[in-house]
Amino acid sequence: MIRRAYDWILGWADSPWGPAALFILALAEASFFPIPPDVLLIALCLGCTRKSFRYSAICLAGTLVGAVIAYALGFWAWNAIDHWFIPGVFSQEAFDSVADIYEQWNFWAVFTAGFTPIPYKIFTLAAGVFHINFGMFMLASVIGRGLRFFLVGWLIWKFGTPIKSFIDKYFNLIVIAFTVLLVGGFLLIKYAF
Description:
This protein has nine helices and no strands. With 193 residues, the chain is mostly helical.
């Protein structure tokens, strides 16, 4: 199933709508979609290495719009659903404890989630739920996601096709490693807070 989704996303790379699809995929991933936009970003960059930085910028713009949407959802929708989570899922004390930790480490939490495979969408929603400073949230997002996407663009611009061969050859291992990191990210969130 993951391979089919991967192939479907890669299919957009050969379409004239590829950059628009990249923007939408990045937007969706920052708020709810599970597949990272890096897959399409890599394919588009390989198709035209001279546009690698342009595609990185499109990906960054999409993810920032998605982050703002997720922040707004967390900020305004939490009060409508919090009674389902407190005390059903976690206690008010646990929620307040996480809010305090998040407030203390807000920049680093969002930056780390933006740069690594830790689920970024959880942090974008949580930033809104905990009402962290929006400017700080956006700064951390721009830096974390910008470093990630422009690093991918630079690698493709610098090394080109060998990177694609590596990804195609080791796709299953990459997916397993990404999944381990993703699940590890969720577990880290669950047990650290």
